[in-house]
Amino acid sequence: MLYESKAYSLRCSVHPNSFHLILKASQKLCVKKPPVFYLNYRNIQGKGIATPTLLLAFSKFPEQESQDISQAAERMEMSIQVANCLFGFFLSDILSADLLAMIANISGCLPYMLPPKCPNNCLANKYRLITGACNNREHPRWGASNTALARWLPPAYEDGLSQPRGWDPSIRYNGVQLPLVREVTRKIIHVSNEAVTEDNLYSDIIMVWGQYIDHDIAFTPQSTSRTTFLNGMECQMTCEKQNPCFPIKVRFLIPSREIPGMDCLPFYRSSPACSTGDHGILFGNLSTLNPRQQINGLTSFLDASTVYGSTPATENKLRNLTSKEGLLRVNVKYYDNHREYLPFTDRIPSPCAQDSNSSEGERIECFMAGDSRSSEVTSLAAMHTLWLREHNRLARALKNINGHWSAETVYQEARKIVGALHQIITLRDYIPKIIGPDAFNLYIGLYTGYDPTMNPTVSNIFSTAAFRFGHATIQPIVRRLNAQYLDDPELPNLHLHEVFFSPWRLIKEGGLDPLLRGLLAHSAKLQVQDQLLNEELTEKLFVLSNNGSLDLASLNLQRGRDHGLPGYNDWREFCGLPKLETHTDLNTIITNHNVTEKIMELYHNPSNIDVWLGGLVEDFLPGARTGPLFACIIGKQMKALRDGDRFWWENDNVFTEAQKHELKKHSLSRVICDNTGISEVPADAFQLGKFPQDFKHCDNIPGMNLEAWQEFYQEEEICGTPKSVENGDFVYCSEFGKSTVTYSCQYGFRLQGAEQLTCTNKGWNFEAPVCIDINECENEINPPCSPSTKCINTKGSYKCLHTDPYKLSEDGRTCLGNAHFLFPVSANTLVMTCGITLSLIINCRKKTENDNSPAKKLPSCKQTDVFHDMTYIQSIFQLWFRTT
Ligand code: HEM
């Protein structure tokens, strides 16, 4: 029997009684489309140059765990919508907690909604977990990676649940339509590359620090599906709004558009989060009416996730596990005057640009770091590289003075110091310059200790609007300087678009030093009301050739609507600022009245203004680089990140007084001195100065003395050195005056035996444990390989072996068929994908072999079809999920 699929509308083309037929059909039809990134791999191989959409997808491509979560969440959301469709429009009345629990479980969401297991050993107070979980003992998911961004105000969706503002053009806001975001960009935000006012106080590296630190705390993955869930249309090929496509409509065609003639730019909605709850089993309050939330793939904490990652899998890839010095992996092919570079990504061929003069076959791939966006621009890649070097420098020095430390101890101690330095540079040197002294005192103030009632989770408004203020401080030109801080004819100025995803320019054009000198000695761009974003960002974002472009300003505005951010005035009220009702009110906070004029022309009412734009055009506070609204949001967020972090560097018992004293001496300038060939820097890297008068020799830049970390080792007389274990390590940890050691295993292994050993007068109280290999192939909940491949367990990992006629694609999880047809390797994913492509399923038309007549549309369910028999509903769901 053959089945054909044809898309009709979701609401609602199937009667519950027909469900068993559909079930069968779905077995044949449920084929998951690969994520946009992998689909386009062949484009890279073919034409050699990646399109801007592909580059954005690459930089917004979540790593495996976020991917699993976002797909699970998409499945769950879609399943609930479909259940709603199948069983009636008043689902919340009839859908029991049990059924929701079942959907959560089968969609794959459940494991991510349960509270994490927090370790109860000595180390739990010594080092933060890589996921950020268990920082707060009462709320272990606060600030953890892959949880929902916090909402400080309820979301504003057009349907109250999920539909972005501006989705339905017939909906009016204060009597008018919202303007198209691209029109806002064209008329208010965009300026030419020449229209730049230089910041007279701050250097260009302050912009880089902003972006770098943002990538420590916020990463909102976008849907990994490249097609609409309902009818499988490619988002790149359609201007229709259908999840996850939310195309940016353009009034005037953009000549360099990827698909000529289309009047929109592609936009993928951010993935929804599984559930917003953070505690216990939450089905009591898991309602179908929970509005859509978005995920933060990173830990919220300022903890150098950029260097170490936010999940065990990423951390494992970044560490050099064979070194005794607790080092991070480095590039084995290229060095910068004997100094290290970041390793290349393992997702090859990566979409990064290649040097057109490179020798045959030579490829410089995108870098791999704790955050996946490290190659986005060369300045960001340089900052990541600096901190990789700083970790390895510290680790070697720590091992040197503490020969008895295990590799794990050295790694964790260096990681702890690097994390503390990120916090110090951000809160002491960066934030006061951005929000100004008054807002700093008002919203942040002096540190008074850890506050366990403070939720540190990064908020949606911070990452989707306020902290994107930095986009208005980006110079359109990249400058590189020689050792005398002079222009170098060998290294001409570049347009920003020439450094997007171009790690080769670091490696082949002089390494880090010339670029960092350019950033230190040139000013940042000043955010000026009628000079917001330059054409490099609005017309040439991620352009590597003339194969299309994106527009960062429109992406920001559309993202705000996608996330359901309430309008500008709601946020002003949230911050206790007066609501602006009229054009005249607006003129009181925006000095440039031409700008107010243009804003009112497009938005008609101040309450309609998209919050990113509203915050961006406010007059600066005194001594600040933001207006009152963004200063409030950034200030509140920073306070939450500081006071809600149990491992904050100033909190009691995190560092000794002597160590804190040393940490305070350190600075970004010192990090540059210690890890590059640069010998003269400004004392404060963010402060703009003239060379040579405002620069200091590195000998005069203070730094830490690591002796404060020296531990004098006296071997336990009775117990001796603890036994080392294969594929694991131990860390000394004193608790209640007793000497203890805690063991842990490498990723892919699990501990068998006692985790913690204490020295007693009879020796160690337990035998040392062993690390045993985890057999990933036995994971039934989320099998790593598809039924079409054979899962082979290997030591610490697994392999998916393809069986003809399929071969494994570059992602290592997807099967590539003869006809270049991709489908997912994971059986579970396969099942669940049925959840998200259910419209295909429910719109299946039955067609027998001899039946040539046009298939009939399945009967529609109407509101009157509401189905109240819970047992039946449950069994249908169970059956559906099991059999597909
Ligand atoms: C050349 C420099 C930069 C480039 C090319 C760049 C590009 C981008 C892009 C493409 C996005 C995703 C837009 C979307 O689809 O929603 C983004 C997000 C973001 N950017 Fe930038 N950006 C730069 C600098 C900065 C700076 C200086 C800051 C802050 C001071 C910043 C803060 C952010 C934030 C907070 C997000 C949201 C992150 C998330 O939640 O995923 N960016 N940026």
TrEMBL record:
Membrane-spanning segments: 821-842
Annotated membrane topology: Single-pass type I membrane protein
GO MF annotation terms: calcium ion binding; heme binding; iodide peroxidase activity
Residues that hold heme b according to the record: 471
GO biological process per UniProt: embryonic hemopoiesis; hormone biosynthetic process; hydrogen peroxide catabolic process; response to oxidative stress; thyroid hormone generation
Lineage top rank: taxon: Eukaryota
Pathway annotation from the record: Hormone biosynthesis; thyroid hormone biosynthesis
GO cellular component, one term: extracellular space
InterPro entries per record: EGF-like_Ca-bd_dom, EGF_Ca-bd_CS, Haem_peroxidase_animal, Haem_peroxidase_sf, Haem_peroxidase_sf_animal, NOTCH1_EGF-like, Sushi/SCR/CCP_sf, Sushi_SCR_CCP_dom
Enzymatic class: oxidoreductase
Pfam families hit by this protein: An_peroxidase, EGF_CA, Sushi
Location of this chain's protein in the cell: Membrane; Secreted
Alphabetized UniProt keyword annotations: Calcium, Disulfide bond, EGF-like domain, Glycoprotein, Heme, Hydrogen peroxide, Iron, Membrane, Metal-binding, Oxidoreductase, Peroxidase, Repeat, Secreted, Signal, Sushi, Thyroid hormones biosynthesis, Transmembrane, Transmembrane helix
Known EC number: 1.11.1.8
Catalytic activity: 2 [thyroglobulin]-3,5-diiodo-L-tyrosine + H2O2 = [thyroglobulin]-L-thyroxine + [thyroglobulin]-dehydroalanine + 2 H2O; 2 iodide + H2O2 + 2 H(+) = diiodine + 2 H2O; [thyroglobulin]-3-iodo-L-tyrosine + iodide + H2O2 + H(+) = [thyroglobulin]-3,5-diiodo-L-tyrosine + 2 H2O; [thyroglobulin]-3-iodo-L-tyrosine + [thyroglobulin]-3,5-diiodo-L-tyrosine + H2O2 = [thyroglobulin]-3,3',5-triiodo-L-thyronine + [thyroglobulin]-dehydroalanine + 2 H2O
Domain Sushi: 717-773
Function: Iodination and coupling of the hormonogenic tyrosines in thyroglobulin to yield the thyroid hormones T(3) and T(4).
Summary of subunit composition and partner proteins: Interacts with DUOX1, DUOX2 and CYBA.
Record-given protein name: Thyroid peroxidase
